[in-house]
């Protein structure tokens, strides 16, 4: 949405503050304001720029800028991010030295609306704030070069990274921390300070940290639970939202977690699967976004991304350029729950696959195991598959691919299920 306002500033308004009112629509995720001043030939004229909402000033850049943006989480320096509340707003102008002829100002206000979109990102990465090799700026550059939209900061047992990330970056930084103990690791997302003390020598201490983090609004993921070096050795009956089924390059440890997750689903549990590179430093098969979390989010914000993950609207691909898959049944998609009555009416499951290679295996799984399998033929990069839903607990999909560089057939994609009630 775009609004263009032309305002004539007369000589009597020299040195005054001028409000140019406009109405903020509902559902705006980010707004951008551009100022163009026509000075009718005179020089040294200055039009200072700022903005206010219904309650307060939201920013002022004077004559230093002719454009700015404000989002719910980020803004141009000099402006305050936060809620873009619908209602009366005003661009603030201050004209100076406009002389007897005055000037004309054109304001272009663009509104970027909240709308569902696929975003790709990283949910497990480290920096120099713990044992990572790269600074925040270096990590930002690498993530953007990989084409990612978001990056979770999950340094070990510290939260300092959550207070120093680049606030004006196009990358959405998700605050986080990896609680790291001798008996298991878990990530906390969405809260700058999920806990106060990292002394967790006992399971009771770990549960107390988790309890406090939950009270503060954190989302919790159990990390690489079947890792041979640092798996989850404590009881699985601990408060958590998600499980990291894919940590770094695909290997036997991940396969064990995938099997365990499938067993949880088959037992009737709804548990969101996530992945993370566990990036510390560049290695041949360890890079940001390997694997990539593709998230169907309502907004390009921390809140929007974490809400989408929590709903299970997520699939994992081995890399940003890896295969992609959407899975829908009528108005429902991965993460949603369909009633058995809808299934009985003959609802169809539709899978749209992109970025395929010849020989890829597309598998459709339920609690009964692999229900159907399709082998991708040569010169077939996309494929649409349709299956009639049956009385099952869930449907989920995988894509397996042969990787010549390692001489193995490995998981290339896994998606969260559509559930049936």
Structure write-up:
Strands 9, 10, 11, 17, 18, 21, 23, 24, 26, 27 and 28 form an 11-stranded mixed beta sheet that branches. The chain is globular and about 80 Å long. It has helices spanning 136-145, 203-215, 252-266, 302-310, 340-344; strands at residues 2-9, 17-24, 28-38, 46-52, 57-62, 67-71, 87-96, 103-113, 117-122, 150-152, 172-174, 176-181, 184-189, 219-222, 242-247, 272-276, 292-297, 314-317, 324-329, 332-333, 337-338, 348-354, 361-366, 369-375, 383-388, 394-403, 408-415, 418-420. It contains 5 helices and 28 strands. With 421 residues, it is mainly β. Strand 26 (394-403) and strand 27 (408-415) form a beta hairpin. It has 3 domains: 2-113, Jelly Rolls (Sandwich); 116-322, Metal-dependent hydrolases (TIM Barrel), CATH 3.20.20; 323-421, Immunoglobulin-like, CATH 2.60.40. The longest helix has 15 residues, at 252-266.
């Amino acid at each position: 949405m775009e609004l263009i306002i032309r305002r004539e500033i007369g000589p009597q308004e020299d040195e005054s503050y001028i409000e140019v009112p406009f109405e903020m629509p509902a559902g705006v995720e980010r707004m951008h304001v551009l100022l163009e001043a026509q000075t009718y030939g005179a020089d040294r004229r200055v039009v200072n720029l700022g903005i206010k909402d219904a309650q307060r000033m939201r920013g002022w850049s004077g004559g230093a800028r002719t454009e700015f943006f404000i989002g719910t989480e980020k803004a141009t320096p000099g402006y305050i991010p936060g809620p873009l509340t619908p209602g009366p707003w005003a661009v603030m102008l201050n004209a100076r030295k406009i002389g007897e002829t005055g000037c004309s100002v054109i304001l272009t206000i663009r509104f970027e609306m909240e709308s569902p979109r696929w975003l790709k990102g990283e949910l497990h990465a480290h920096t120099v704030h713990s044992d990572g090799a790269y600074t925040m700026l270096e990590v930002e550059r690498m993530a953007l070069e990989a084409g990612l939209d978001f990056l979770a900061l999950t340094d070990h047992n510290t939260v300092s990274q959550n207070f120093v990330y680049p606030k004006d970056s196009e990358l959405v930084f998700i605050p986080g921390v990896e609680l790291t103990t001798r008996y298991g690791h878990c990530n906390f997302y969405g809260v700058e300070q999920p806990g106060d003390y990292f002394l967790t020598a006992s399971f009771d201490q770990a549960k107390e940290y988790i309890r406090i983090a939950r009270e503060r609004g954190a989302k919790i993921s159990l990390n690489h639970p079947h890792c041979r070096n640092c798996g989850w050795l404590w009881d699985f009956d601990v408060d958590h939202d998600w499980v990291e089924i894919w940590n770094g390059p695909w290997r036997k440890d991940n396969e064990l977690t995938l099997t365990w997750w499938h067993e949880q689903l088959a037992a009737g549990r709804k548990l969101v699967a996530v992945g993370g590179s566990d990036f510390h430093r560049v290695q041949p098969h360890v890079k940001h976004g390997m694997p990539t979390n593709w998230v169907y989010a309502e907004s390009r914000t921390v809140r929007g991304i974490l809400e989408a993950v929590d709903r299970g609207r997520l699939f994992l691909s081995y890399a940003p350029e890896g295969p992609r898959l959407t899975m829908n049944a009528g108005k429902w998609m991965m993460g949603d729950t369909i009633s058995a009555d809808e299934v009985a009416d003959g609802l169809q499951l539709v899978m749209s696959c992109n970025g395929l290679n010849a020989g890829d295996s597309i598998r459709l799984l339920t609690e009964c195991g692999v229900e159907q399998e399709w082998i991708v033929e040569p010169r077939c990069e996309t494929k649409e598959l349709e299956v009639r839903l049956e009385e099952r607990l869930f449907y989920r999909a995988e894509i397996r691919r042969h990787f010549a560089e390692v001489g193995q057939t490995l998981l290339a994609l896994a998606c969260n299920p559509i559930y049936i009630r």
